[in-house]
Every structure is written in structure tokens, then in C-alpha cells.
Amino acid sequence: MTIQDNAPLKGLVLCGGFSTRMQEDKSSIAYHGMPQWQYLVHLLQSLLPEVYISCREEQRTNFNAYAHLIPDSVSYGGPSAGLLSAHALQPNTAWLVIACDLPLISRQSLELLLQSRDTGKAATTFVSPFNQLPEPLIAIWEPAGLALLEQNVAAGKNCPRKTMLNTDIALLENPYATEQFNANTPEEKATVFLNLGL
Question: 22 pLDDT exceeds 80?
């Protein structure tokens, strides 16, 4: 694995999932008075100069003509498709990646991630408070880490977390760990609305 120090860092909001369990597009749910994709884009734009949305080709019209879209350009699905489509488009870029099913994420967690970025590692991420494993979709992926993920996917190992578990990453404890809650079902969505007082 070749480490590239100080690769430019950009934001990537992952919106390409099919939201099967939620039964509606998770990126369109308005937890904060606007579609979740828009909330996350604005959040990342407050921290980074460029922010992109990862999506499936047929989703292009869902994002109000937002200019920075990266449609999936690979044949396999899952979050690896979004990560590696971005890597294929800009192979020398590092990406601060946020999945669209994180309704409680806020600037404080992302600032901690940015402050703790270790460009000498494949990625910088948080440990999950739910299973004590790395969070591959609240993370800064360096170009070398994405190149390794690409190799693993080509070998049939289509799992970003397993790539993290088998390489050198910076793993952080997040004092705002409740912000890592994933909302993937209608019941979890209702819990979030309740917690937000909506």
C-alpha cells in the first residue's frame, strides 16, 4: 500500500442505496427541515471546499440539479460502489464519507474526524458504539485505502469494513457516539423524530 501524504480532501454523501428496509428513500427524509442529502451536503460544505453526492444513475433527478453528482460507474452494488466510483473519478483525492442514513450526525463529530485525520493511514474513522467495529461510512478514506478496497472488491471481498479491519487505520473514540446512530427502518426513523422533538 502506497501512502499519499496530504491528498486533497473532499466530501462525499452516499445516497445510492435502495432503502429497502426503510421503504422510502432515506436521502429524502426531512429530519432537519430539508431532505437528508441536502442537510449533509450543507454540513460538509461548512467544513470542506468541495462536496459530492454519490448516487445511482437513475437517481440523478432526485437532487434538485445539484452540480456535483458521482453516479455509480462500477457493476457491483453496496457502499463500495459509491466509494470506488468517486475514487475512479478522482484517484488522488481523499474523501470524507458520510452515509445518508445518519440523521443525528453533526458538525462536532465531523470536526473531530478532520482534526484527527492521519494521512499516514489508509483511513481515519470512529469505532462503532454498537458493535465496537470501525465505521466505514463515517470516515476519511485516503487514496491508498480506496486503492486497497478496490483490490479487495476485485477479489470478491465487497465490504469496506472488512478492508478497514485488515489494514492500518486511525481508529477514534467519539465522545458524541450517539451521532453514529443509523436509521434504516420506519421504527428507527420514528425514534429519531422523537429524539429530535418532531
Answer: yes
- The CA distance from 102 to 181, in Å, is 6
Domain count within the chain: 1
165 domain-assigned: yes
The domain spanning residue 65 has which CATH number? Answer: 3.90.550.10
Q: Tell whether the torsion through CA atoms of 44, 158, 178 and 17 is positive or negative.
A: positive
Q: Are 149 and 80 in contact (CB under 8 A)?
A: yes
48 occurs within a structural domain: yes
> What is the band of 186 on the pLDDT scale with cuts at 50, 70, 90?
confident
Which residues make Cβ contacts (< 8 Å) with residue 197, sequence separation at least 6?
A: none
C-alpha–C-alpha distance, residues 90 and 146, integer Å = 11
Domain of residue 173 covers: 9-195
Question: Model-level pTM greater than 0.85?
Answer: yes
